[in-house]
Amino acid sequence: MSAPAIIYGIGLGPGDPELISVKAARLIASTGVIAHFRKPGRPGNARTLVEGMLAPGVIEEALEYPVTTEIALEDPAYGDTLRSFYDDCVRRLLAHVTEGRDVAVLCEGDPFLYGSFMHLHSRLTGRAPIVVVPGISGMSGCWTASGVPITFGDDVLTVVPATLDEASLRERLRSIDALVVMKLGRNLPKVRRALCAAGLTERAVYVERGTMAGEKVMRLADKTDDEAPYFSMILVHGRGRRP
């Protein structure tokens, strides 16, 4: 009896194709079905990263988000729409598994760190074999691009999503050693205010497209506009014990 088909959640790393792991590259090149998230009408960053790596005749499943920023996060319609979307993604992937085909789901960064794959994983558990291949996180790529270690000695690293409301952001930033603010985008003005209230503006570093083409690194205080793409973060480097 042949082994059951497997669904792989494959971390692609922070954006530089050369930072894809050997294991991830091997599976990408040998798996018969490649699934990847994208916005409608766009190739998607994950798919672009693996261009030239796929096996001949591979089946591609483009998982197109029905909504990104068009509906507010707090609107019940946002959650309802995404729940239906993820349920449909699982149905499509399980159809391949039923036919005996392994599936590789491409995941930017690490599959278990703020990625869409986690919503598939919770729905797939117990219904199909799953193997998760970790990847270098986007935050790791950004703090490396900054040229300064993010933590020293006993520093505690705090990771905060910029999608929190401003009051919550201010509370989280009141007492930090080292900080990563993810999911920046249109939330940059709100994050600026929270950093200012915490007295952290002068320590904050803005990183855009870390490890990718078009990488930008600058002091947040020197950034004169509030434009921030999806692939951007703010860092506050630790000042902990050093020998």
Describe this structure in words.
The chain is an alpha/beta fold and 243 residues long. The protein has 2 domains: 7-136, Cobalt-precorrin-4 Transmethylase, domain 1 (3-Layer(aba) Sandwich); 139-236, Methyltransferase, Cobalt-precorrin-4 Transmethylase, Domain 2 (2-Layer Sandwich). It is built from 7 helices and 10 strands. It has helices at 22-30, 45-49, 76-98, 117-124, 138-145, 166-173, 188-197; strands at residues 7-11, 33-38, 59-64, 103-107, 130-133, 157-161, 178-182, 204-208, 216-219, 232-236. The strands form 2 sheets. The chain has a 5-stranded parallel β-sheet with strand order 3-2-4-1-5, with helices on both faces. The protein has a 5-stranded mixed β-sheet with strand order 6-7-10-8-9, with helices on both faces. It is globular and about 60 Å long. The N and C termini lie far apart (59 Å).
